[in-house]
Design a protein that fits this description.
The protein is of the alpha+beta class. About 25% of the residues lie in helices and about 35% in strands. A hairpin with a 2-residue loop joins β4 and β5. It starts with about 25 loop residues before the first helix and ends with a helix. Removes the formyl group from the N-terminal Met of newly synthesized proteins. Requires at least a dipeptide for an efficient rate of reaction. N-terminal L-methionine is a prerequisite for activity but the enzyme has broad specificity at other positions.
Length: about 170
Amino acid sequence: MAVRNLRYFGDPVLKTVSDPVTRFDAATESLVDDLLDTVRLPGRAGLAAPQIGVNLRAFSYHDHDTVGYVLNPELVEVSEEIREMDEACLSVPELSFAVPRATRAVVRGVDLRNEPVTVEGTGVLAQCLQHEVDHLDGLLYLDRLNTESRKQALGLTRKTTWFWQRH
């Protein structure tokens, strides 16, 4: 178990569709432990495996006192009500933009025993579920911005110290 280093915007793993988890063994358990340890740090709501350099469909979430994970998650239901919510990302630090998200979301996947898991959330948890599934599909929240906001975000990204340390 360990807190893992994050991957940042520009790393190809963040734009790659993640592979399904097919082995439910000690290595997968270790990945889940690392996702849970890493998401528990203050100010973190969710963390997808690609954000720590692992191209597998797995994420962890932290909502108030609840910490959990889902393997092979699929977004199976979202509300029709969409709201623009301020959103940030651990892989795009120092920036935040309004992103249209459903106010309710349901994710289905499995746990470490390959048993079905369903996570349903509203508000911030709904936003987190959508955000983390996006990561597994090779999308960043920047991809969901309107043209003007995306242009602004990319310009600001290029001015950050973390961007230039990575490129």
